[in-house]
Amino acid sequence: MTLPFLGPDVRDLGAAFIEPSARIYGKVEIGEAASVWCNVVVRAESHEVVIGARSNIQDFVMIHVGNGTGTIIGEDCSITHHVTLHGCTIGDAVLVGIGATIMDGCEIGAGSIIAGGAFLKEGTIVPPHSIVMGSPGAVRSTRDCSLQNRMNAFLYRRNAEAYAQGDYRLWSSEGFRAEMTAERKRLMAAVG
What is the residue range of 9's domain? Predict the structure, then answer.
């Protein structure tokens, strides 16, 4: 197995899964139990990129810094396939849908969902617990999606642990279904 390319300024803060095809350059901090998947590119030449604990950066994501801003991703986030993040801030427990683009100076509030294909123009501020759709992206409804977003992050955290052990079929196992049910109950109890 080849190792992923990690530039000299990359800080892995503990047991992150970084798939070997990922390319990570510049000042990047990767939180505990985060995962960076196939063909992800992270470039932080002038500002920093921070990926929070237990967040997952899925296949073919591009993360870059803005002209005057870094890119900060909170904890328990899912940045799904083919997303582009450019100099923005993503709050905790956010899911960014497939193919979305979030530009410089955008701030996404905790517990939100950015729908697949959405385009958020520079400086867009999204309040917590928002569902954003469209191009340009706009809040279409309000709902706290923290529980389901944290559950998605849990799925990817466990999948990363399995991949690190050479198990590429964890999600299909009966035992994992029981583990998912237990985690959902734990998260629901923690919320309230």
Answer: 5-142
